[in-house]
Structures are given as C-alpha cells and as structure tokens.
Amino acid sequence: MREGQTTVIRREDYAAPAYWIDSVELTFDLDPAKTRVLNKMRLRRNPEVAAQALKLDGEELNLARVLVNGQGTSFKTEGDQLVLENLPTVTDAFDLEIFTTCAPEKNSKLMGLYVSQGTFFTQCEAEGFRRITYFLDRPDVMASYTVTLRADKKKYPVLLSNGNLVEQGDLDGGRHYAKWVDPHKKPCYLFALVAGQLVAREQRIKARNGREHLLQVYVRPGDLDKTEHAMNSLMASIAWDEARFKLPLDLDRFMIVATSDFNMGAMENKGLNVFNTKFVLASQATATDVDYANIESVVGHEYFHNWTGNRVTCRDWFQLSLKEGLTVFRDQEFSMDLAGEASARAVKRIEDVRVLRTAQFPEDAGPMAHPVRPDSYIEINNFYTVTVYEKGSEVVRMQQTLTSREGFAKGMALYFQRHDGQAVTCDDFAQAIADANPSSELARLLPQFKRWYSQAGTPQVAARGHYDAAAQRYTLTLTQSCPPTPGQAEKLPFVIPVALGLLYADGLEIPGSARTVVLSDAQTEVVFEGVASEPVPSLLRGFSAPVVLRYDYSDAELLTLLAHDSDPFNRWEAGQRLALKRALATIASGATEQPLDAAYLDAMRAVLRHPQLDAAFKELVLTLPSETYIAEQLEVVDPQRVHAVREAMRGQLALELREDWAWAYEQHHDTGAYRPDAVSSGRRALAGLALAMLCLAARETGDVVWPGKTYQRFKDAGNMTDRFNALAALVQSGHALARDALQRFHALFKNEALVLDKWFALQAGASDRGGDVLPAVKQLMKHPDFTLKNPNRARSLIFSYCSANPGAFHRADAAGYVYWSERVLELDALNPQVAARLARALDRWKKLAEPYRHAAREAIARVAAKPDLSNDVREVVSRALAEE
Questions:
Q1: Above 80 in pLDDT, residue 591?
Q2: Rounded to 5 degrees, what are φ and ψ at 151?
Q3: What is the pLDDT of residues 355-375, one digit of tens each?
Q4: Across all residues in the chain, what is the average pLDDT?
Q5: 403 lies in the same domain as 503
Q6: Is residue 429 part of a domain?
Q7: Which positions are annotated as active-site residues?
Q8: Which of 526, 552, 578 corresponds to the end of one domain?
Q9: Are residues 149 and 23 in the same domain?
Q10: Least enclosed by CB within 10 Å: which of 27, 327, 458, 527?
C-alpha cells in the first residue's frame, strides 16, 4: 500500500509470513544517479503457513533480473509488489537472486538509500528497505547480512555497513570495496550503509567482561572538534547499561555517523547508528546546554536500542512502543542517574513531564488519539508519536513502580532470557516483568494493567479529602474516569499508581503518610489515622502515572506545597497550578491587566531568593505554563486571548520582581569555565530567564540599562548558551537592539548550519512584541540560507511558526492557516514524513473559538482536497476532519 491507496492495516489481521529469509548477501555498486543492487537471499517456506505465492515489497525500483536457484523464473508485479508463484514446493531452503537499480540523488523523501551533500546514507525504519531492494519488508523477518560496498575511492573513501569489517581492498578504475558481516540476525529496518568523505573520532574501551571494543563517531571533515561530547555520552551509555541492567556491548565496533539531512533524530541500525547532526555536534561556541543534554539523551537512546529493539525486536509495527517506549524510559533513567543528586533528577523528571503534558495529552484528546499499541493505521510513519514514545515510557515506568527498581531489573533479565533474538509483542514484555515479580501488584493486576496498551486517552483522577477532627481521621477518595476517543467510547478502569503523602498546614510532613496507592477500581478510599489537624494532600508525587489530577486545591494549600513539599515535582506543580488558576480566571473575566496578585508574586519572589533551592529548579518554577497547556484546560479556545493573558502575566512578573531578577542575574551569570553539568547549566538557565525578564520590564519602563547590558552580554559571551539567551531576550522583548544583534549573530555563524537553525527558529517563534511575525517568516523563506529540502531547516522556520508560536499563528484574518496549508502541500511533494508532522499543527482545531475554527477547518479541507496527497498527510487531515 503506497500513495494513492488508503488501505487500513489492522493489528487483528497480523499473520506470520509465508516465507522466512535466513540470509541476505547484498552487493552495492554505488552511484548517485544509478546505484546497482544485487540481492542474494536464502529463503524457506514457513511450514506453519499454507503454501502461497511469495510477495516482496518494492518501491521506486528498476527491476533487471530475478533468478531462483540460479535459473530464470517467471514473475509478475502487483502494484509495488514483486510476485513469484512457481517456487520450489518443498520446505527446503532455496536461493533467490534479484538485481535492481535505484536513483539515490533523486530521493528527496530521505527514506531508503539517498545522497546528502555527496554522501550516501540509508534510513530503513519503518518501511524504507523496500526502496533499496525487493524484500519481505516487515520486522518479524530476521536474517543474517553480508554486505559488499563498491564505489569510487576518491569520492567515497569511507564505506560502512552493519557489523564487522572483514575485508577491504582496491578495484580497477580507481574504485574500492569493503565487505561487512553482521554477526547478529536482524530485521531489514535495521540495515544501514554509509559511503562518503568522512573523518572519525575513535576510542578503544574495555568492557567489564574484558572484551575490547572500537567506538567511532564519523562526521564530515571540519566537524571533528564537535564530537567529544557525543563520544563521552556513548561511553557513559555503555557503562550505564552494563551497570544498571547487566547488558554489555555485543559488537567488536560501534559506529555513529552524523548527517544534516535526516527525517528523525537518529536511527539505531545495528552497530551503525545514523544521527541527525543536531544530536552529535557540539562545542561551547555553537551548542547550548539544552543541545548538550539532548545529545547525551539521544546517544543513550540509540545505544540502548542495541538490546531493547535490536536484540529483541517488534513482531509488527503495532508493537512499536515495545522498543520505543521502553527505550525512552531507559534514556530518561540514564539521564537522571547521570544527573546524580535528587534535585537534578527532579529537574529532568519535570522536563519530561512538560513534554508529555504539552504534546501527548493534546494528542490523546485530538483526532489522532491512539493507544500506546495502536489497532490500525494507514501510514505507519504517522505513529512515531509522543503517545508511542513518551506515554509508552510512562507505562514502562509504572511497571517499575509496581515492582520496584530491583524487581524491574529482574524482569528485564527474564525478558532477554526468554526472547533474545526474537520478534515479540508488548504483551510478552509485560508478562516477563510480572512473571519475574510474582508477588507484585503488577502480577496481580496484569490483565487490567495492559489496558494502558489498548485504551487511548488520558485518564482523569479526581481526589477529594474529608477530615474528621474528633476522630483525627483523614479520608482521601480517589475516582478515575477516561473521556471517549475516536473509536473508543467506553473505557474500563486502568491500574493507576498514585504516590502521595500528607503535610500539615505549617509544612511538616505527617510521619508514615507517604505511600503509593494503586487505584484499580473506579473509586477507592484511603484512610489515615492519627492526623492531628486538617492536612494538605501531596498527590501524584513524581508524576507517578500519566493522568490528569483533579483536586480543588486552595491557594493556601498550594502555597504550603510550593514552600515545603519534600517531593520536588509537586513543589513545581504547585507553582504551575497557582499560575494556571490565575490565567484561567483572567481569561474568563475578560480583563487582561494585572492578572497576578500579591500572594503569587510574593511566593515567586521567595522561590527566586530561596538560599537552598537549585537554580535549575527555580527557573522551572518561575517559567509560566505554556500557551498550549493553558489552552488545553479550556473547552473553547481564543488563542489571542490566551496569548494576551500569558503575556500580561509575564510582563507583571517581570516588572514586580525587577530587583529580584537583577539580583538573580548578578548572582548566577558567572559560571566560570564552560561545563555542561547540571549545576552550571542551571545557573545559566536562571540567568537567562532573569535577562529575558529584565528586558521585558525595560520595555514597559523605558529603561535602557538592561537592554544595553544584554546586548553587551550577547557580544561578549564565552559560550552559545549565554550568547543565545541574550539574543533571545532582546528578540522576545521586541527591543530595537534585536535587529542589529540578529545580523551580528548571522555574520558570526553563517557557516554553522545548526546555529543558523536556531537563528531561523528564534525569529519564527518570536512574540508579536517585535511586530507582525508572519511577514517576517515569509521573508525568511527567501533567505539564501533557507531550503525546504533540509528537514532541520524546514522545521526551524515553518514548524517554529505554525506549531510553537500560537499567538502569531492563530490570526483572525486566517493568514497563518493559509500559510500552513501552502507549506504542507509544498512539503508533501518533497518529503511526506515532514509534511505530515506539520499537518499535525491543526489537530486541535475543533476547540478553537470563531472565527479561528471555521478558517482552520477550511485550511484543512483545502489540503485534503488535493488529489495526489501522500498517505502520510491524507491520514492526518482525514482524521482531523472526521466526526464533525
């Protein structure tokens, strides 16, 4: 099923393949215009499936030859499939040889084999291998691979593929070859090759078991000095996986290669990870603290896939969260363990939950809502989602919560003992964790727990407390429900671990009150005895389940939690709830001026000045809930009203705390020699926020001192974090100095692609304080450094405007929506995956107030009316228009 067809693929229709492929021998003669691919396979019939024709997937291939056991054979094509019917009837293995050609330089979809800046790359997940050769392109067909690459030696001196290099040498005509053998069976989506002019940072390490390994990070010449952090992250990942889960590196060498043309963040091809440069290249002059943290996380994620995804893979693509949810959980745990002490761990947890709430919760409530394990799809690329990844991670985290950290590790060991080398399901994983912990709550409730995999939507937990002063008894009642989602009207109760504790009004925690309550019925009661006075409940500590918590906290209760809770997540959450209450009340009132009262401002001042709290934590508490998150709390959304109220809150926070922001900046802006560690990064983050607030206040007061200081900071900064924070402060406040600073920034970094992405994104995501954003975005599209063909550059400008700047995008004149529809169609002709991601920007159009709602629907319908849309985009817009 390809473009033009809309076949629905259903999980219930899964059937094992009629044939297995045991071994694959691939020979590539690499040429940008015409690459020749010789594919020799050893196949055998699956004895458990009735005899039938062999149907191989292929796309945009030129077929030259088909041989069975060395002899010519009859074949036919049906759509994109190659069909062979006259095959040996016995179950013995037979040889199939297929010779095809393809044109990598014309492959703008960046799926399959393509050329980027003169270098060959592959991307085969999910269904890209069929664009290289005819094959059973499905994850449950696992084979051993031998790969020979041949190419011009001068143009392509480095030839890489999965596994171990066993042979290399020169050929006639200035060509050379390299032969690679992967010792592990793998599905074809994990195949990779890279060929080009590359240089490598190398590191030899010795594992705990004494085995030696060669680690290599390949980049284009000139970028080698930006690979140290990626290499350090890889070594830390290997050490962590051995220590935490006893999982060693199983290859003689492990390679990372960076490319600037990539649809995703990175890809875990066995032993040959291909990365977006964004998640490899870093120096203090060009990368921010956030970049450094993201590189550590993504390098860890892809390395951890070596076991959770590669050694044990997915039976079918519906099980995608089996590898992705589990591996996101592993990379989050890795980053938290590396962060060290409790406060830095909490900062990482808060950052992860913010992503879940601002991206996954809206997805759960929108037209693309789907379970962690979807039941159907038209285009699998559309299901690489925050639900599969981030919510999937939370489902794994709950399994750890219900079994303990040690119990979960035992479950992981059993999972690999049972399934190493297999293609399995989410059920197999959960069963292994439960079986390793037979006395756990997970084992007791496993069939019900697995509803997290099958039911879409975000559960809501309503809590209410009753205090009996005479009996000194506090009763907490918890109730769960889940709203309907497309195709799922009724929801059965989930298994929801709720970590909680009780505080007295003076902030002291009530001894013995901390516990994890497992909510598995529609309602349950928890009784606390010996409670001397009415307590303040601290609920859903550490965000112990991916739910919406409904509890009618008073301001006094929230201020108590903010000041005293022993759980840092709930301290932050209390601050967010205080801000959200004021935002929603102001939006409802119709007013805009002075949305923040003295009690809130005093609380924020106390946090900012607190002598014990970490700077990183302070920055999170003092950052207001996003416009997207505020909008999700409303039944009907006027985006301009939300924007105006949040901007008024920011302005008031800036003005009322001017002296405190100045103190914070002076105390935190000097972090010494650059280090991207948690403490230094936190200090820079708080100093950056302070600078932004001081520039905002200066706009209101006419002050010229702080904008001047900010501009000087921009010019003198010794690292990209400080430089970019200063630039952003000027741009977001709309100060006149911003124009000169932007020009100076471009001149400094015009040859650094990743830094230019930041430059484009900052302008597209700017507040309207600096003027009308859309004309600026349109003008930037004409900039000589802009191109739609590079996904990073397209995302930096177009996505930053359409998806990350609601105040500028949702215009009463609908011009933002018209721009969106034009870009979706333009991108769809080049790269359907990127276009489909952009199409998601209007998922929540039905919540919009008029005139936005009608105009957004018209824009979506305009895209849907295009007859030759890709399946990627058609699925998104069709679902957006459904069920009106």
A1: yes
A2: -165, 170
A3: 999 999 999 999 999 999 999
A4: 97
A5: no
A6: yes
A7: 302
A8: 552
A9: yes
A10: 527
